[in-house]
Amino acid sequence: MIELRRSDPQDDLISQIVYAEVNGEKLTLNQIVEFCILLLIAGNETTTNLLGNFVRLLTERNELQPAICGNAERLNTMIEETPRFYSPVQAVLRFVKQDTEFQGCHLKKDDVLVLWLASANHPSGVRRLTCPDSELFLFRTPSATDRIRPRERIVKKL
């Protein structure tokens, strides 16, 4: 596939990876292959987890089933909203780039941080004070802006 995209680029992700540059240098064949393997594994894991969490949400919240039955727009919205309830990735590791302080904790360069994505939309205290509807299911499609900053929401109860 990589050689095919080198000789005949398409409007697809593999072509973009084949022609990508980092600091002005093209990726090596080995780097391209490794990146494609990573995408395959990551895409499979997150998609599988999203679908499993979607079914979990339907079984835990029976009132949602009739709301999506025969309604493709609501089904798509529910798929978009599912990660807000159950993240397909539970946690990620990050390394501190430089000595810093965060909420009274001194972090040293190269310290390891575990970011718990699964709790991002359900922290105690703060979220419930600023967004008391965080456990309600929203049948609307979030905009791109909604995905990058906290949103004020219009809640429609079923």
Commentary on this structure:
A hairpin with a 2-residue loop joins strand 1 and strand 2. The protein starts with a helix and ends in a 10-residue tail after the last helix. Helices cover 46% and strands 13% of the residues. The C terminus is likely disordered. The strands form three sheets. The protein has a two-stranded antiparallel sheet with strand order 1-2. A two-stranded antiparallel ribbon has the order 3-6. The protein is flat and about 55 Å long. The chain has 158 residues and is α+β, with helices and mostly antiparallel strands.
Overview features:
single chain, 158 residues, alpha+beta, two-stranded antiparallel ribbon, two-stranded antiparallel sheet, flat, disordered C terminus
